[in-house]
Design goal:
The structure holds 2 protein chains of 2 kinds. Chain A contains 19 helices and 3 strands. By secondary structure, chain A is mostly helical. Chain A folds into 2 domains: 154 residues, Up-down Bundle (Butyryl-CoA Dehydrogenase, subunit A, domain 3); 216 residues, MetI-like (MetI-like fold, Orthogonal Bundle), CATH 1.10.3720.10. Chain A is flat. The chains are: A mainly alpha, B mainly alpha.
Chain lengths: 394, 247
């Protein structure tokens, strides 16, 4: 008798997907500030669509029953998981205006707990498929690309326009673009400056050991200061400076605004970069450097042709940590008037407007995840061939 | 041994200075007045400091405690033979969730639980469960396979191996995860005051609102001291009680 190997992770995803059907698909709210009444999947969607969703989950379920060790079945399950996400998204967007009662002129339709749970279940199925499909072939694309790509198409084509968060966006389109750009500018330039400072500093303390302790003591202590406070600490000194030198004020460098935010973010981003630069030089195989020296390289050549290329992956990992952390912390910059997506988060918190909070938070999370994945790809590309075999892909 | 004695001394010093600031803030006030002579108020007075500290500790300890109660068994579960299927998925979810900014998690908790104490606990819990699970997995997976083989060879069953061999050997890495969780939570809990959870973030946020750097610095010093105290304390627990488990 053939034994059945169940893929339990995918199975958990399937169970989650079916459980999600018992939780509300959406919440119908009379206004952007009001709480709402939940709407289930049966009331919310046409019967055929609901049947399609159930059918897709059944397909995934059957595939997952046999998919362990069977790559092609896992691939099919993962692909179907992508389809589930897109079907649910598209139909929620399409049904949203129909779900609003006539009298709700300013009504909003928000995704409910069931919606989010179903996406979570599909995500588990996709994760399971990714594990069953090793390597970087076309199968990987088939599992991981359709949902993000479809999301972009749905967003760009305006298919999700009637969902509450996007309605919040359409009220303040230009402000959003401005703050989004602001957020990127602040966090990327902070990490850029932190890198140009941190990299030489890491090399420096590797060469001059007596500076190692004080530098690490300072940067470590800096990390224990709450990010929230660090943003405030420069207000006083900078306000004082700009009172002394009116020129600074004309350049927009005052107690509040982008300058103190930038300083705080740079200080916060320094530690991972310095630490990883230092460590990467330290764990460098002494024999490799020795060999270079034997070939007659001078210290400059040693640094640029041997040490830096070999240390690069670990240094980039430090920059990756800094970047992800900084993209998140830039949210707090809004508290001292520096703008960024935090503006929407804190306005939303102030008005108890959930859509507005989400309008700030979702792009921040998206940016952080994108920065992480982008750096991961860059590190993978820039790792020297000789190191790639031992380093893992993640 | 003098290194360790120095660290105990440092811990004592940190605790004493923390208590001093808490119960006898006059020196801190002098210091802040020296730095910021222009301000009228230098110490936050609307709520007694002891209450803010208590709120802060409650937030951190409850959240980290819950995270440990859930995260530690989860980490053990995915490294057992009957849970290993879930190991890649759990690692992936953690890697993804780790990129979510703490403030974002905090803000996301508001639509679910409203304002105040509970959403802050939820956010801190979600954020601190990550290093705990990650380090539990890393600690248990990092044990050389020869050790496990030897334990099997002397006739231990899987529970005995877990309790007598694997957990003690992994304990230092697990404690390191707990340490990270506590430190992150002490910092992030200050942001909880934005959504009305109280704690040491209250003077910081008031300072931001009233444009008073003295209040910000005062709150920051207290929160940083608290983080340093816990960092030292857990580090000392590690080197005093767990260093014998080093292979």
């Amino acid at each position: 008798m053939a034994r059945i190997y169940v893929d339990r992770v995918a199975m958990l995803g399937v169970i989650t997907g079916f459980l999600a059907l018992f939780l509300p698909l959406a919440r119908i709210r009379p206004s952007r500030l009001a709480g709402g009444n939940p709407t289930g999947w049966i009331e919310g969607l046409p019967v055929q669509v609901l049947a399609l969703i159930i059918l897709l989950w059944l397909i995934i379920g059957v595939l997952s029953l046999f998919s362990r060790g069977q790559n092609s079945l896992a691939l099919a399950a993962g692909f179907t998981g992508n389809i589930v996400i897109l079907v649910v998204l598209y139909w929620l967007g399409r049904q949203a205006p129909l779900l609003l009662p006539e009298e709700y002129t300013f009504g909003r339709v928000s995704p409910g707990a069931g919606f989010w749970l179903m996406l979570g279940g599909a995500y588990l199925v996709i994760l399971a498929a990714l594990k069953a499909w090793p390597g970087r072939g076309w199968g990987r694309w088939l599992i991981s690309v359709p949902a993000p790509l479809g999301l972009i198409v749905l967003l760009g084509g305006g298919f999700l326009q009637e969902i509450s968060v996007l309605q919040e966006l359409s009220i303040r389109q230009s402000r959003f673009q401005q703050e989004f750009f602001n957020h990127l500018l602040i966090s990327f330039s902070a990490v850029g400056i932190a890198t140009t400072l941190g990299l030489p500093l890491g090399v420096f303390i590797f060469r001059k050991k007596k500076w190692e302790r004080p530098v690490f003591f300072l940067t470590n202590t800096m990390q224990t200061v709450p990010a929230l406070a660090l943003f405030g600490l420069f207000i006083g000194p900078l306000a004082f400076l700009s009172r002394l030198f009116p020129l600074l004020r004309e350049l927009g460098m005052g107690g509040t605004g982008w300058l103190p935010a930038m300083l705080a973010l740079i200080l916060y981003a320094l530690l991972p970069i310095i630490r990883n630069t230092y460590t990467s030089f330290q764990i460098l195989d002494e024999k490799t450097v020795e060999a270079g020296r034997g070939m007659g390289m001078n210290p400059r050549q040693l640094l640029f042709q041997i040490q830096l290329p070999l240390a690069l992956p670990l240094i980039l990992t430090g920059i990756r940590t800094s970047l992800v952390q900084t993209v998140g912390n830039t949210t707090l910059a809004a508290l001292i008037g520096a703008g960024g997506l935090g503006v929407f988060v804190f306005q939303g918190l102030g008005q108890a407007a959930h859509d507005l909070i989400l309008l700030g938070v979702l792009p921040v999370i998206g940016l952080a995840v994108l920065a992480d994945k982008g750096m991961q790809l860059l590190i993978f590309r820039l790792t020297p061939r000789g190191l790639q075999a031992e380093g893992e892909e993640n | 041994m003098s290194g360790k004695r120095f660290r105990w001394f440092l811990l004592l010093l940190l605790i004493l200075s923390f208590l001093l600031i808490l119960f006898y803030p006059t020196p801190l006030e002098w210091f802040l007045r020296l730095l910021f002579p222009g301000e009228e108020v230098h110490i936050y007075q609307r709520v007694p400091g002891i209450i803010l500290v208590q709120q802060h500790l409650m937030l951190v300890l409850i959240a980290t405690g819950l995270a440990f109660i859930i995260g530690f068994p989860l980490g053990v579960f995915v490294t057992r033979s009957w849970g290993r299927d879930f190991l890649p998925a759990v690692s992936d979810v953690i890697a993804l969730a780790q990129t979510f900014p703490p403030v974002a998690v905090l803000a996301l908790a508001v639509p679910i639980l409203g304002f105040g104490f509970r959403p802050t606990i939820l956010a801190l819990f979600l954020y601190s469960i990550l290093p705990i699970v990650r380090n539990t997995i890393a600690g248990l997976e990092g044990i050389p396979s020869g050790v496990n083989e030897a334990a099997r060879g002397v006739g231990m069953n899987s529970w005995q191996r877990l309790y007598l061999v694997e957990l003690p050997l992994a304990s230092r890495v697990i404690l390191a995860g707990l340490r990270i969780a506590v430190i992150i939570n002490i910092g992030t809990a200050t942001a909880g005051s934005v959504i009305g959870a109280g704690g040491l973030g209250v003077p910081i946020v008031s300072g931001l609102v009233w444009n008073n750097p003295a209040l910000i610095l005062g709150g920051a010093i207290q929160a940083a001291l608290l983080a340093l105290i816990f960092d030292q304390l857990l580090g000392l627990i590690d080197s005093t009680f767990l260093s014998r488990f080093e292979l």
